[in-house]
Design a protein that fits this description.
By secondary structure, the protein is an alpha/beta fold. Helices cover 38% and strands 23% of the residues. It is built from seven helices and seven strands, in the order αααβαββαβαβαββ. The chain has a seven-stranded mixed β-sheet, with helices on both faces. The protein binds S-adenosylmethionine. S-adenosylmethionine binds next to helix 4 and strand 2.
Length: 215
């Protein structure tokens, strides 16, 4: 890309970093709409969660690279449901629900559209960052809590949950709470996640399902 005129140092550094980013180049070659696909790919290569999931919910799905990977790796008969504030063109067969996941009505509408319990809830939701680490941390933790609550309401026994957070202090408590409901819970920092970013994923495996009955 060639851009004329004066550019600030930070814009130039951002552009340089993009041009050198191997995951961006790879995403173009592999046909993914964003480099985020490789974060999920690393998680799935390690834990093998997608192939055996008959129902998957992708939270914070736009622009759609996780959806692409879900449709490539899941069985053709699996149900994939994507949610985002932003509208985008999902892969064939993926149901998109557009709206704010923090809205109770949207969550209820989503539950109504599911065909029974879910095997994998994956949240890559992130607020627009403000560059104030404490605020960004608290805002993503609120989204993570909403995703966790949804996972508890919808996951089948043995189901799995992936959630992105920005590290900032409150994640330890969150992890401890997840440990009450899943047999195994761990932090996972994909190599494709920039080392300077506070982003990290929590992978919670094998839901205990304390519910008296599955919906
Ligand atoms: C990092 S992007 C996700 C990238 C995506 N996983 C992919 O592979 O293309 C984070 C997404 O979270 C969405 N998001 C943030 N807050 C949300 C909310 N309250 N409800 C639904 N989506 C939200 C944003 O609109 C944004 O598209």
């Amino acid at each position: 890309m060639k851009i004329s005129g004066k550019m600030s140092l930070s814009s130039r550094m951002w552009l340089d970093r993009r041009e050198r980013d191997p995951y961006l180049k790879k995403a173009r070659t592999d046909g993914y709409c964003s480099r985020a696909a490789y974060k999920l790919m690393e998680i799935d290569d390690k834990f093998h969660l997608i192939k055996r999931a008959k129902s998957i919910v992708d939270l914070g799905a736009a622009p759609g690279s996780w959806c692409q990977l879900f449709s490539r790796r899941a069985e053709k008969t699996s149900q994939i449901t994507a949610v985002d504030l932003r509208n985008f063109q999902p892969p064939d067969g993926v149901l998109l629900v557009t709206g704010d996941f923090e809205d109770d009505d949207l969550r209820q509408a989503l539950i109504n559209r599911l065909n029974g319990a879910v095997d994998l809830v994956a949240s890559d939701m992130a607020p627009t960052t403000l560059g104030h680490p404490r605020t960004d941390h608290l805002r993503i933790m609120r989204l993570a809590e909403a995703a966790y609550s949804f996972a508890q309401d919808t996951l089948a026994r043995g189901g799995n949950f992936i959630v992105k957070i920005f590290q900032g202090g409150d994640e330890k408590c969150f992890l401890d709470s997840l440990k009450n409901n899943f047999h195994k819970v761990l932090f996972f920092k994909p190599k494709s996640s920039r080392s300077e970013s506070s982003e990290i994923y929590i992978v919670a495996l094998d839901f205990k399902a304390h519910r008296e009955f599955d919906f």
